[in-house]
Amino acid sequence: MPSTDPSSPTEPSEPSEPSGSAASPDRDPRPTPDPKSKSEPKPKPDPKPKPAPKSPAPVRSRKGVVIGALVAVAALLAGWLSQYAVGGDTAAPRAGGDSGNATAEERSDNTAAGDPALLKLARRNADDPFARGAADAPVVLIEYADFGCSFCGKFARDTEPKLVEKYVDKGLLRIEWRNFPVFGEGSERAALAGYAAGRQGRFWQFYDAVYADKGNEKNAFEDGHLRELAGQAGVRDLDRFDRDRASGAARKLLEKDRAEAYALGAAATPAFLVNGQPIAGAQPDEVFTDAIERAAAAAGKSGKPGESGKPRAGGDRD
Prior knowledge:
The chain has 318 residues and is an alpha+beta fold. Helix content is 39%, strand content 8%. It contains 9 helices and 5 strands, in the order ααββαβαααααββα. The chain has a 5-stranded mixed sheet with strand order 1-3-2-4-5. A hairpin with a 2-residue loop joins strand 4 (271-274) and strand 5. The protein is globular. Residues 1-29, 31-41, 55-110 and 306-318 have low confidence and may be disordered.
């Protein structure tokens, strides 16, 4: 068996002389080829090659690690945005079906003042019929909601009245409505009707009438039903109500509000911003009160409008 030692070649040994005879000095010691054979002498086999060293395992470059980390962070942020979108009555845009509440985005007191870009979304128009509370209140809660959303109704019935009494009436909080219909044409019709009610100064009464009845959840909101709700809200001129909800101005505001929600990454209702801090879904009361009080404290320290807390005229309920 040939040696496996690479230093010992496995060539065949040379042929030896016959026993008892001396080698002739002029004799070529190399073997004489057979003249009858036309083949060349077999070449000597090469030594057994040494095994090639194993290549080292590829090492991930520092650049690759950094890129991977950035991708992971981006994925988390994207997940947060689509969730801030919120979960409450969680549904993909223009789809139906509830899926429960999502969690509020937690932030430290250092960020309670909110993101400057999100703070600019507050319209703070004193004549806005779709807002309640002082235009210069230190805290603005923006609500992105659908009149056919069950969790929006839960917030309207259970939480919002407490916030109005505790903060809006005292000049600390302003609530601004944004149309975000995600449950189809019925929800869009209700949003347009809300605009028409607002044109006669009865938006919040219409809002209460819609959400007071749980049967309105995922309602088709046909014309007759919308006129009935408008009557409950105290809308006096129903002919004007019909004209206003069919107007281009109503559609333009609806699309503006909805585009704003989508631009934020919202994909479900209800969605909220409290001085730029997102809250997802119809959360327990303390989630909103905590966010409002921290935002008010941060606004007071920064000297933002309304820190004096004096009540101002706004679209409060009658």
